[in-house]
């Protein structure tokens, strides 16, 4: 009897002794056995790496392409509530059945002699690539999970490769040297194929890697740009280059509620696939694009998965100020391998009261430890809770109509809060 999707996901967790084992040899072997490397998975492939901004860049590229009636598929990770969120075809989350079929094919290939051990992410990536390859896609947009050079997604050659931002994160795997982190992210570049740099503050190692393999470099602020003053809700303009090298501009674009740098980067990536961007269609797509867990407002609550100082600085810049007399609460839950001090320092000037929550699991961090760090930065901790849901319960009796709540720090934190109605002031 075939396994259900839930049974397959449980099985994947037993396949490898560690959760993250960076390298391409094992995953490439299984991909070859599956025939995934024999032909492109789509007519055009865009791969997106970076420390922050990958998910929003993928989501906006996907939404704009869909609006232009491009047959597009996307792969992103991690998910918030359902594994199916990771694979989307035609803008819709994939059903269980093709995922189950994909995992069965991965398993058969993995078990061929000699047997190959795969991590959860590697098996999931192979399954996703197989599903996308069956869909007769014009465009596939793939998000790198960790790093770039040694990430499982990098078995696929990108027609257009994007690096959104470079900052410190996942230090135990990528180190703390920003130049070396840039080298790892730039590992998705391919000779003679466009390399897009989606930030104006990026280590020179990224562009140098592209130049070293004769990949054309498209840098934000030079090859393409946007005019935006960073004020939420204000329209902006984009200027970029077509695949033929002609200049193109789009005016009066709406604020997508996601970083405008990433929106501009998504537009440049699509232009380099040959898509003729139409102003009205692009405007409509940006008005409607959504990405759960990224500056997601639910009443008084803003939910964001940001978990490093770079993401926290963006949150501090974009966070809506409470009405006069209101408090800016922060419900914070972070994993133990993240830079909590850097995150707290970035947000401390905007937060009046903190609620710390414990995240369970091998990488979990106790609320009490977060509270000590916040207090060391001069912050006021209102309370601690043993789960994100319990933290929301603390706030249920404290919220005034003028208050705002930022709930952030991890996919785990946001996912837990999305499973229940959030308390709102009466």
Molecular structure report:
It is a single chain. The chain is of the alpha/beta class and 426 residues long. Helices cover 35% and strands 18% of the residues. The protein contains 15 helices and 17 strands. It has an eight-stranded mixed sheet with strand order 4-3-2-5-1-6-7-8, sandwiched between helices. The protein has a six-stranded mixed sheet with strand order 12-13-17-14-15-16, with helices on both faces. Strand 14, helix 12 and strand 15 form a beta-alpha-beta unit. The longest helix is centred in the N-terminal third of the chain and has 15 residues. The chain is globular, with a radius of gyration of 21 Å. The chain starts with a helix and ends in a 9-residue tail after the last helix. The model has no long low-confidence stretch (mean pLDDT 94).
